[in-house]
Amino acid sequence: MTWDEIWPLLRQGTVETLQMTVWATMITAVAGVLLGLALVVTDRRGLAPLPAVHHLLGLVVNVGRSIPFIILLVALLPLTRALVGTTIGTTAAIVPLAISAIPFYARLVETSLREVDPGVVDAAHAMGASRVQIAGKVLLREARPGLLAGLTVTFVALIGYSAMAGAIGGGGLGDIAIRYGYQRFENSVMVAVVAVIVVLVQIVQLLGDRLVRRLSHR
Amino acid sequence: MIQIEKLRKTYRGRGRELTAVDGVDLSVREGEIFGVLGRSGAGKSTLLRCVNLLERPDEGRIEVAGRDLLALSGGELRAARQGIGMIHQHFGLLSSRTVAGNVAFPLEVMGVPRAERAARVDELLDLVGLTEHAGAYPAQISGGQKQRVGIARALAGRPKVLLSDEATSALDPETTASILALLRDLRDRLGLTVLLITHEMDVVKRICDSAAIMRDGRVVESGTVRELLLRPGSELARDLFPLPAADVRPGTTVVDVTFEGDAADRPFVSSLARTYAIDVNILGGAVEEVGGTRIGRLRIELPGDPDLNAAQLAHLREAGLTVEVHPSPGTEVAA
Ligand SMILES: Nc1ncnc2c1ncn2[C@@H]1O[C@H](COP(=O)(O)OP(=O)(O)OP(=O)(O)O)[C@@H](O)[C@H]1O
Ligand SMILES: [Mg+2]
């Protein structure tokens, strides 16, 4: 294949990959923060101790994390159809991507929130802050650099997972690598795709790190 | 200002029970600085955290500024806490906010409008001398400055009461001195009542009007610092004036004499020696400035067993001195 033929493929693949991963990351950010916060808050020593809820959420997260993505992709087909009306295409791929990333990110969120200095939470209680104020103005705010670093890791992982979304016609760079590079032995396409993915990951990580550094005042 | 009655707090966990505060009565008067001393694990922090109900006691009564805290609902308690400032050993500052942002935090919690907040933050930073560092983050300032932020933040709600748990324990002696001076100055200017916990005798000596000593969850001694120092057998006096372990030789009487104010200026040792024509040995001693008066302690040795020195001891007591006789080997304890 000539460069003129490869170029439009790459452009389209990159756009599709970004569509899938950016949307999935945004959904994961919201849901993961809520789930991670719920895990921390309902803990035995949390702001609103609810051990039963805590254990249930923990179980859901662990189950979600142990299912291999490729199986999740197939298992979620009915849900995907219910949510977006179709099971093929870029939009349809966002559903399994987000659902596999949410429990993963929720654990990262949980870890970041647990790292918030308990002395600060204590001080906020002593000031008469409500639990909602403590969750928002202390826990989430203090953990912001960690939350963002975790989201960067999640974004990068999603770029990797999105390659498998080609299996359900999700498109994207991974799909091109398989269809042209692997099935038609077009090594030049394969190399170009891998190069684009590497650059993409670099950019995401770099931007993430930079933002984390700006938010962190420790 | 703070009334604590029959306070008891037991921690329970996995079949173990630990009564950290075991029936404490304490009364802190308005405008005084009250120090609580005691070994590690004595229950000091638990006691202090009960005063704003960060820990809920199992029994007892807590009254702050005339309000029975245990009778308050959740919302009322949060409002009451806004009127009780607290400063912490490790400062408890938000690392994600600037100095000004940290001081503004309790104002946000209280729902003070933005415009008012800025003016109040400036006022508070001025009060603790941190105006220049308003835009710095906690990681960029020194420990002493962090504690000043902690103090400014604690004063945001114009509290009448300030609680302090080892506020100077993480600071060097010089910084400690400046923080203590600031606390005393704020007490004088704002009429604060301060309840503080410390393990440093120096803190008590410098700023406390009253003190209590805790051991195993109980208060074993309490009163004004002056009273405690003059009380025979007081632990506070022993810790404040550390004298070497008494080595009483047979046939002698070893006496600790505590004196204050003008008594310190009268030469009681030479008067004793002259009146009874005896040799008085001085074994050790110290004089400290406490709460504006000089209080001192002297360990002297008189010839003869204690029962032979009754007149001499009476002579010292008549001079207005507090006298403590060390038991000597083979002799019954004489008071
Ligand atoms: N949250 C808790 N759960 C269980 N036990 C506790 C808890 N907090 C304190 N204790 C125990 O209660 C006792 C009193 O603790 P406290 O912190 O009040 O002592 P302290 O006098 O402040 O000691 P220190 O000088 O070391 O700060 C200790 O034996 C401690 O281990
Ligand atoms: Mg303590």
How does this model look, in words?
The complex is a heterodimer of chains A (218) and B (335). Chain A has ten helices and no strands. The mean pLDDT of chain A is 92. Helices cover 80% and strands 0% of the residues of chain A. Helix content of chain B is 33%, strand content 30%. The longest helix of chain B has 18 residues. The chains are: A mainly alpha (218), B alpha/beta (335). At the A-B interface, helix 6 and helix 7 of A face helix 2 and helix 3 of B. The structure holds adenosine-5'-triphosphate and magnesium ion. The site of magnesium ion (MG) has 3 residues of chain B, from helix 1.
Strand order of the largest sheet of chain B: 6-7-8-3-9-10
- Compute the number of helices of chain B: 11
CATH topology of chain A: MetI-like fold
Mean pLDDT of chain A: 92
Shape label of chain A: elongated
Oligomer: heterodimer
User: What is the CA–CA distance across the termini of chain B?
Assistant: 37 Å
Radius of gyration of chain A: 20 Å
Helix content of chain B: 25-40%
